[in-house]
Design brief:
With 270 residues, the protein is an alpha/beta fold. It is 42% helix and 24% strand. It has ten helices and eleven strands. The strands form two sheets. Strands 1, 2, 6, 7, 8, 9, 10 and 11 form an eight-stranded mixed beta sheet that branches. A hairpin with a 2-residue loop joins strand 4 and strand 5. Helix 3 runs parallel beside helix 5, helix 3 runs parallel beside helix 10 and helix 8 packs across helix 9. The longest helix has 19 residues. The model has no long low-confidence stretch (mean pLDDT 96). Bound molecules: ligand 48F. Ligand 48F binds next to helix 3, strand 2, strand 7 and helix 9.
Length: 270
C-alpha cells in the first residue's frame, strides 16, 4: 500500500484542471508575445514557410497565421494526391538545406516526397525560430499613413461559422501575403486603396497553367506591392497577372526566399 502511494508521488498526479491551466498559461504568454513582431506571414504554404525560415534565421521575429489546422498548404498532396513534387535544379539547394532528400529524375527535373518535403519545410521554419498559430485567419490589415502596420486576425472557426465576433490585432513592420491562389491580403488592400504596385493598381488575376513561364515570373513578381506589404508564392502571380503552375514547387521556395531577402534588406536599412 505504502509502496503504491510512494510510486504515485514519484510519478506526480494528473489533474485535469492543471492540464487546462498549463495550456492557457503557455498560450497566453506566447500569443501576447506575438502581438508585436517584425514580420507577419499570412499562409503557411511552401512560400510562406520558406520565407519564415530565411527571416527567422536572420534573427527577425516572425509570426505565421495559418487558416487551416494543418500548415503546409498545397504541398502535401503533390500532383493530384500522388505524393511527389517536382523541382528544377535551381531550387534543389533550398530543399537540401531543410534536410529534404532529392532524387535526380533526369533532364533537369528533380523529385522529392511531398510529405517529407512539407514536414521538413515546416519544422525547419519552426527550428529557425518562426512562431506559428494555426486555425487563425488574417481577415484585414492595419494601416497608418498609407503603410501597412499590422494584421487583423480571427479564429478560422469563427470565420467558418459566420459568427459576428470582432477580431484582434497584431502589429508588425512587414506583412507577407503567402495565401496562395486567392491572394487574400492583397485583395483586402486592393479594395481599401486601389493602389497596389500593378499596372491597374488592382489584383490582375491569375492566368492559365503554364509552368515554364509561371515558375520564372513567380520569383520576378515577388516583392513589395504596397508599403509594408509583400507578396510571395502563387499569390505573387495572381497579383501580377501571371500563369499558374502545377506540382512544380521550386518557384514557391525561391519566391519565399526572395520575399525574405527583400524584407531583410528593407528592415535592416531602417
Ligand atoms: O496555397 P499554398 O500552398 O500557397 P503557396 O505557398 O504555394 C502554392 C502551391 O501550393 C501550389 C502551386 C505550386 O505550383 O501552385 O498551389 O503560394 O498555401 C497558402 C496557405 O495560406 C492559407 C491556406 O490555408 C494555405 O495553407 N491561407 C489562405 N488564406 C489565408 C490563409 C488567410 N486569410 N489567413 C491565413 N491563412
Amino acid at each position: 500500500m505504502r509502496m503504491k502511494e510512494n510510486e504515485k508521488k514519484r510519478q506526480g498526479s494528473i489533474d485535469d484542471i492543471e492540464v487546462t491551466r498549463k495550456i492557457l498559461d503557455r498560450f497566453y504568454r506566447e500569443f501576447r508575445e506575438a502581438t508585436e513582431t517584425d514580420v507577419v506571414i499570412g499562409g503557411a504554404g511552401p512560400a510562406g514557410l520558406a520565407a519564415a525560415r530565411y527571416l527567422a534565421r536572420e534573427g527577425l521575429k516572425v509570426v505565421i497565421f495559418e487558416r487551416k489546422l494543418s500548415p503546409g498548404g498545397g504541398m502535401w498532396g503533390g500532383g493530384m494526391t500522388f505524393p511527389v513534387i517536382v523541382v528544377q535544379e535551381g531550387a534543389v539547394p533550398l530543399l537540401e538545406e531543410a534536410g529534404i532528400r532529392v532524387e535526380d529524375a533526369g533532364g533537369g527535373y528533380y523529385t522529392a516526397d511531398s510529405i517529407e518535403a512539407t514536414a521538413k519545410l515546416l519544422s525547419s521554419a519552426l527550428d529557425a525560430g518562426a512562431r506559428m498559430f494555426n486555425a487563425v485567419s488574417v481577415e484585414d490589415v492595419m494601416m497608418r499613413n498609407d503603410r501597412i502596420t499590422g494584421v487583423v486576425i480571427n479564429w478560422s472557426a469563427v470565420e467558418a461559422a459566420g459568427l459576428h465576433v470582432d477580431p484582434l490585432t497584431v502589429r508588425c513592420r512587414a506583412v507577407i501575403d503567402a495565401t496562395g491562389h486567392p491572394a487574400e491580403i492583397c485583395h483586402i488592400v486592393e479594395r481599401k486603396t486601389g493602389a497596389l504596385a500593378t499596372p491597374s493598381g488592382r489584383v490582375e488575376g491569375e492566368r492559365s497553367m503554364w509552368a515554364e513561364v509561371g515558375e520564372q515570373t513567380v520569383v520576378e513578381n515577388t516583392g513589395e506591392v504596397y508599403p509594408g506589404l509583400y507578396v510571395a508564392g502563387m499569390a505573387a502571380n495572381a497579383v501580377h497577372g501571371a500563369p499558374r503552375m502545377g506540382p512544380i514547387f521550386g518557384g514557391m521556395l525561391l519566391s519565399g526566399r526572395k520575399a525574405a531577402k527583400d524584407i531583410i534588406r528593407s528592415l535592416g536599412g531602417e
